Amino acid sequence: MKYDDETLMAYADGELDAKLRAEISTAIVNDPTLARRVEHQRALRSRIAGAFAKVMDEPLPERLLDAARGKQMPAERGKVLQFPARASRPPAAPWRVREWAAMAASLILGVLLSWRMFGPSHSEVMVASGDALVARGTLANALDTQLASERRGDEPVLIGLTFKARDGNFCRSFIMSVTRTAGLACRVGGDWQVAATDTVSASGQMQQASSALPPAILSAVESRIDGVALDADAERAAQHSGWSPAP
């Protein structure tokens, strides 16, 4: 059965009824394409939530707190002009797919702009390429060159699990310490495609890039991993092969 993006978005947000949610969960196990679409929705949700996380932590302005407490505000200077009442207008038409798609595109654009503005050293670490998010700069270099077995713990990007996916490609989990973002990237062709991202909330997780991944990243790993994670020797051999999948 085919599911549209709106249904998968509701699934990622936990808004479906139990029957439909169980149906999609079962379908994901047998359909890698559907699993990728769900992780894309989860990653988009996580990126949007992360982009606005700091706003929620900012203190309220004193003038708003004073208003909530009922404190008398000083009189404002100037005159208040009363504009004539407007005639009643017909109710607005409900949003259609086109309007929702435009809003989603705007949100994605905002996420990409935030990466450019606030990423490590103001460099691009993720860019949109077709329908995928691709690692660049510091992140791509870490995924190419760093070995989890040789991690010091003070790198800007910490590499965690490295494993072979069911499609034969190599995947690696990571945490970017500056932006406190965890993610999973898989080697497709010559690029590292970012399959999922999530925000790391606890500072202790920074030093445990493999053992304390956020739920969204763990779910992305479980839906892709073929067997077990690579050990140090297998990871080094995969790096020497240029992360090319074995024939």
Descriptive report:
With 247 residues, the protein is an alpha+beta fold. The chain has one domain (5-56, 104-240). Helix content is 42%, strand content 16%. A hairpin with a 2-residue loop joins strand 5 and strand 6. Helix 1 (5-12) packs across helix 3 and helix 3 (32-51) packs across helix 6.
> Over the alpha carbons, how many angstroms does the gyration radius reach?
23 Å
Strand arrangement within the widest β-sheet reads 1-2-6-5-4-3
Query: How much helix is in the residues?
Result: 40-55%
Low-confidence spans? 110-123, 203-210
- Total strands: 6
How many structural domains can be distinguished in the coordinates? 1
Q: Which H/E pattern describes the elements?
A: HHHHHHEEHEEEEHH
Count of separate DSSP helical elements: 9
Q: What general outline do the C-alpha atoms trace?
A: globular
Distance between the termini: 32 Å
Secondary structure category: alpha+beta
Mean pLDDT over the full residue set: 75
